[in-house]
Amino acid sequence: MKIRHNVKRGNYGFLDSKDISFFESVIGKRNLLQEDLDGYNVDFLRSVCGNSQLVLKPGSVKEVSAILKYCNERKLAVCPQGGNTGLVGGSVPICDEIILSLQRINRIISIDQITGITVCESGCILENLDNKTREVGLVVPVDLGAKSSCYIGGNVSTNAGGLRVLRYGNLHGSVLGVEAVLASGQIIDLMSDFKKDNTGYHLKHLFIGSEGTLGVITKISLLCPPKSDAVHLAFLGLSSFDHVLRTFINAKRYLGEILSSCEMIDAGSLEASVSHFKLNAPIQGYPFYMLIESSGSNASHDLEKFNEFLENGMKNGEILDGTVTAELSKIQDIWKLRELVPVALVNNGYCFKYDISLPLREFYNIVNVMQDRVGDLAKCVCGYGHLGDSNLHLNISCEKFTEELYNRIEPFVFEYTCKVKGSISAEHGIGFLKRNYLKYSKSPESIKMMRSLKKFLDPNGILNPYKVLN
Amino acid sequence: MKIRHNVKRGNYGFLDSKDISFFESVIGKRNLLQEDLDGYNVDFLRSVCGNSQLVLKPGSVKEVSAILKYCNERKLAVCPQGGNTGLVGGSVPICDEIILSLQRINRIISIDQITGITVCESGCILENLDNKTREVGLVVPVDLGAKSSCYIGGNVSTNAGGLRVLRYGNLHGSVLGVEAVLASGQIIDLMSDFKKDNTGYHLKHLFIGSEGTLGVITKISLLCPPKSDAVHLAFLGLSSFDHVLRTFINAKRYLGEILSSCEMIDAGSLEASVSHFKLNAPIQGYPFYMLIESSGSNASHDLEKFNEFLENGMKNGEILDGTVTAELSKIQDIWKLRELVPVALVNNGYCFKYDISLPLREFYNIVNVMQDRVGDLAKCVCGYGHLGDSNLHLNISCEKFTEELYNRIEPFVFEYTCKVKGSISAEHGIGFLKRNYLKYSKSPESIKMMRSLKKFLDPNGILNPYKVLN
């Protein structure tokens, strides 16, 4: 494990026994942890480790409010934490911030079957919420590999993307309202039960994607689309990235409104998940693979569209081999190949992970460029991701972190992304690990505006310090 | 015409000849109007009339910047104006604000056929932009009755809704980036060419739906979905609102992912457009009508779905009569019946217009309640709108504005909406006409936060004063 930081502690207060007594009086002794905090201090990638001595688990928005009001007055730094599945070190403390866990604020409040409007608290685990909405014929519009442990509040706070942005858009579109607590302890009710509500400034967006630095989200109103009756998934083998791109264009053309996912995996990525987890891929031996999913309301219509798409692709020589299935267990097996890629790469030593948006014509070049650049220092340089959203996950795995490899990669990878007019963070956010690279994607005046907004909403800087802005 | 306001002029500077000289030096004499300003001073509904003596038509973002910087220093109030089609008095001056027209900043910069990403300036007329995107197989995700004169910049500034929110969601989801000019003259580049860009705070949302009070949008990056090859439109007659609601639920079930619009018109609304514009409705004599549109990629699949939906509705006695067509000219004729309702109601004297979101079970009650309340004072109390988005347009037309009728309607209509937990503005915004009623939809602390945000971004309050906040 490499703890990649050497950050000077900010000018915050230090915890004392009176603080502990206060917190105990608010949330009760058993909802306050002072020992065995590794799981809270270390992030999923094991690249950032904080030194927090205190985890607080409030059970209501009022308790969150009381905690933040107190911390703000005492200038105690706070790290809000959901499922701690973030990949940019945004969900763990950097120094000794108090960890504010949302795990007990986790009720599902209502699900409206007709309008799809779902109201829940931020500590709901994404998969649990999705299961509940599916019971009444709806789905949560965000889906990602970490679904069994990430919280919906964390998803919203980070504007998480995932596998179905192509179909359902991002959370700024799907989140109808939030309740949030400001650094001052002020509870702001920005909930809405409507798809359309143009009454004044749309303040909720300040909290979507600001990674807990402007407020702590405690409740969410979410527009959930209807569950599709028919799902088909194809796993395809292709010989070049050019064919991958053409296949994506054809998928849009032939599948139209039923296209729900368009993912690319290169050979190195597939090899990682297959070998690490001893999985069977339906086909192997190609440089590129695609997962193309349709979700629709009529299985025979959808299959007809799918077959036409596949026949065309095979006839043109773009798709070399593949399989398509509507069987749930097979669909799940194929998705596993994709979803376990990042897990396999992390478990095999150390992995440098980059989550970038790129113009489609540039999409895969960066993998080759990085391969040339790092040479034998890496075990594997590979790329996979949400081609349909122009979002590549570039991964560089190695036995263990070395400064030499690190310096070969950064800041070059960000400079390159900037040069081809990409975005240095498509969906993972900025967190701690990318805060020094924000300038590659944001203009100086917008960074300045971010800083003054942070100062405006959190004058003492207690909320998730050391993150997003440096 | 009733000019419904008696507002005390704010503490702003007064225009003098030096100001005129400065503006002439920035934009040239011919882009500055000082006469015949009625078309700029009076809103579409003819309910608000300003007394501006000056219209400026900058040709670039730099000119907008220079104008605002100067106005901010001189404390001259500014009313940004797009196509002036707003329905809440947000786009006209209230006192003598300088009108900043975006009409010359109207280039379409790029349209990416593959990703759908379209970049344009804010003065583009919505219909022109839509026509251009259609040439390469895309559509603009916002569509509304005023499309031939409204500007995309105004649509984004007001988070305009319209006919296809049901399918494509709202503009917070579709707008990928904006360029805006702050009150200080500072140009903020928040453009993005990507669907996914999680680099820092999502500041663009501050300008989407804040009605020109926080900044002036000059450029937009918009995600345009593919144009549908097959469009079907049904015009249905129904006997009760209960049947309307059940038909909506069935449309979602049978049409699934191809459902692109679900509108309701009551008898009074249809009668208004039919009689005023001498139109032919395919069917008449029912208390309720629905327009249900599908947009898909396969005409025969779509028609099969549509027929199944209609057969089921007729068998159950929910749909009494109707017609369905895929012919473009017939589709346009049917849409006219709907789109001309508001125009007909306005042209027939005076019309009180309310644009509200309501829980579906409460959706139509308010029309009956208002009918009882206003009695003979009104010519017509009717309701139509975007049922699929829970958005009702309640209209009360009369020969001419009277205080008596006004007092019967307001604030009752807002109190009622608040009581049933609706929103007092679904898509039209707050503008000038609803600023005193904001409290019915927003909590005191969120209004307070709005005020401090306004102060933060526009300390002299020069941008679109008297709007949104009172």
Overall morphology of chain A: globular
The largest interface is: A-B, 84 and 84 residues
The tally of strands of chain A reads 16
Helical region count of chain A? 17
Report strand % of chain A.
Answer: 15-25%
Low-confidence stretches of chain A: none
Q: CATH class of the domain at 108-223 in chain A, please?
A: Alpha Beta
Spatial arrangement of strands, main beta sheet of chain A = 13-10-12-11-15-16-14
The quaternary structure here is: homodimer
CATH-derived topology of the domain at 108-223 in chain A: Uridine Diphospho-n-acetylenolpyruvylglucosamine Reductase, domain 3
Q: Work out the radius of gyration of chain A.
A: 22 Å
Query: Major β-sheet of chain A, in short?
Result: 7 strands, antiparallel
> How confident overall, as mean pLDDT of chain A?
96
Portion in helices of chain A: 25-40%
Structural class assignment of chain A: alpha+beta
| N-C termini distance of chain A | 24 Å
Notable characteristics:
alpha+beta; Alpha-Beta Plaits; homodimer; about 35% helix; Uridine Diphospho-n-acetylenolpyruvylglucosamine Reductase, domain 3; about 20% strand; five-stranded antiparallel beta sheet; about 475 residues
